[in-house]
Amino acid sequence: DIQMTQSPSSLSASVGDRVTITCRASQGIRNDLGWYQQKPGKAPKRLIYAASSLQSGVPSRFSASGSGTEFTLTISSLQPEDFATYYCLQHNSYPWTFGQGTKVEIK
Amino acid sequence: EVQLVESGGGVVRPGGSLRLSCAASGFTFDDYDMSWVRQAPGKGLEWVSGINWNGGSTGYADSVKGRFTISRDNAKNSLYLQMNSLRGEDTALYHCARDGLVGATDYWGQGTLVTVSS
Fold it and tell me: Tens digit of pLDDT for each residue in A13-51?
């Protein structure tokens, strides 16, 4: 099974900060990775698909890169509505696996 | 508008069974692979199971393999998850999710809560 190691598990940041979250796959997954945002009590929302493609309607301050085993999600200028938990998901092969999540909190 | 509405959750004793259902609308159901994803209280997301568009290929998390069975009925636009031999660690909110034509899961239902407790 492919393990996804996401870091950090949490971070504190201020509005306007640049934030980077990383996911590492235990083996190569090409670009079969998505990034999701989840707010308390809500279903997750897809931000990124195919490792670097921005989901329609998602602000351009979100970007992502990577291929193979190393992936990053970047928020260029953190906004108040971005405080949430973020997850990566690999869908290269069954069983699919999520990263452990990164909680982005207000500093 | 894509809608995924789960049902069938509830309280069940350890060792018991439940069948979850997901009613899909707003898209051509048999064009899409589907998944179940769960989230235990206060915990992260866990992919549980997936099924391709015609039911010919399925996958399971190691934690549920041999106990859970995913299926679909394209004529009824419905996805199912049969859960047997339930354990306390299966307590979670279970989401039905559509897998994107490009990339993974792109739409989620609001979930149905399963509580395994004696």
Answer: 999 999 999 999 999 999 999 999 999 999 999 999 999
- Measured in whole angstroms, how far is the alpha carbon of residue B51 from the centre of its chain? 10
Q: Each residue's pLDDT tens digit in chain B (118 positions)?
A: 999 999 999 999 999 999 999 999 999 999 999 999 999 999 999 999 999 999 999 999 999 999 999 999 999 999 999 999 999 999 999 999 999 888 889 999 999 999 999 9
Residue B105: phi, psi to the nearest 5? -40, 125
Residues 68-107 of A with CB under 8 A from B: 85, 87, 89, 91, 94-101
Q: CA-CA distance, B2 to A48, in Å (whole number)? A: 19
Helices (H), chain B: none
Taking the C-alpha atoms of B7, B9, B10 and B16 in order, what is their torsion angle to the nearest 10 degrees?
Answer: 130
What Cα–Cα distance (Å) separates residue A68 from each residue in A92, A100, B86?
Answer: 10, 19, 36
Nearest chain A alpha carbon to B61: A95
